[in-house]
């Protein structure tokens, strides 16, 4: 493909003066439209659209500006008139170099002529750091004869206890002497309980102090705890109010529904004693930290429990059932247990339920 030489002057003449469109320019120069677009972007030739004018003088300007260069300079000088310093005006201004005005975003040191940092354009800095230090020595703000001057090595402060030279000019003691001095009453944290990383028993996030559970003897990470997480939970569950509240929350989240044997018992109860017994195995009612299956809602302290043949014949569950019965009886409740194998003969279960309901 041959090299295409399209100049900026050529494009500007065709686009602005002759009023050709981009596609017409492409057909005239025998190139593609994408090539013309690329050259427009390269030469910063803006598309003709709404004519933008200066808000002060009305002169046509670029679409992204509000004022022309002349009016913008007048406006800037008006705004900065209150903050202008006479000693920095004219030739003495840091924006001047060799009698010529530099751009406002460029500043030069008035002593050595070195270009200053960009941040110097936002304040009245007229010297570089090196020349500014020399100037301060010259006018007497920094005294070179004073041995306590922080600019000199001989002026470094010494530890008031051991006399060691300190790298920090504001310090009064070295690290070793400061550690000795801050012990006991002199320590600002004396008498305040330190926790977390500030605690002396911690190192790299791990406790140095060995702490053990008072119940099971397990090693505890937290140096302030007396029980491990498991034993602490068991201790909390000894409180019946806490246990009942947690059981209700847990069982409500499980959304428990009656199983097949419990549905059979519920059908029999509704048939024999309508509106007297209610299913509460979903955690609606907690008695002494235990959740019964059926409870009398007609004023009688009577509970009906359903026990599965496999689960409730285990040794650990038997102990739990025994504690449950003792708790119910201590609170004055009468309890009837219906086993899973008894539901094979519904007539016996009916007689058992009638007899239990008639008891006082």
Would you mind describing this structure in some detail?
With 360 residues, the protein is α+β, with helices and mostly antiparallel strands. Among the domains are: 8-42, no CATH class; 85-136, no CATH class; 201-238, no CATH class; 240-358, Endonuclease, Chain A. The protein is 34% helix and 9% strand. The chain has eleven helices and twelve strands. The protein has helices at 8-17, 22-29, 33-42, 69-80, 129-139, 175-181, 229-237, 240-254, 260-272, 315-330, 346-358, and strands at residues 52-53, 60-61, 96-97, 100-101, 202-203, 206-207, 211-212, 219-220, 277-279, 294-296, 302-307, 334-339. The strands form five sheets. The protein has a four-stranded mixed β-sheet, sandwiched between helices. Strands 1-2 form a two-stranded antiparallel sheet. Helix 10 links the parallel strand 11 and strand 12. It is elongated and about 110 Å long. Mean pLDDT is 77; it is low at 144-153.
Offer a few descriptive terms.
360 residues; alpha+beta; 4-stranded mixed beta sheet; two-stranded antiparallel ribbon; 34% helix; 9% strand; elongated
CATH topology of the domain at 240-358: Endonuclease, Chain A
Alpha-beta classification = alpha+beta
**Name of the CATH superfamily of the domain at 240-358:** VSR Endonuclease
Number of strands: 12
Instruction: Tell me roughly what share of residues is in helical segments.
Output: 25-40%
One letter per element, helices H and strands E, the order comes to HHHEEHEEHHEEEEHHHEEEHEH
CATH architecture of the domain at 240-358: 3-Layer(aba) Sandwich
C-alpha end-to-end distance: 111 Å
Biggest sheet: strands side by side, in what order?
Answer: 9-10-11-12
Kindly report the average pLDDT value.
77
Question: What is Rg?
Answer: 46 Å
Share of residues in strands: 5-15%
Quickly count the helices: 11
Largest sheet: 4 strands, mixed
CATH class label of the domain at 240-358: Alpha Beta
Low-confidence stretches: 144-153
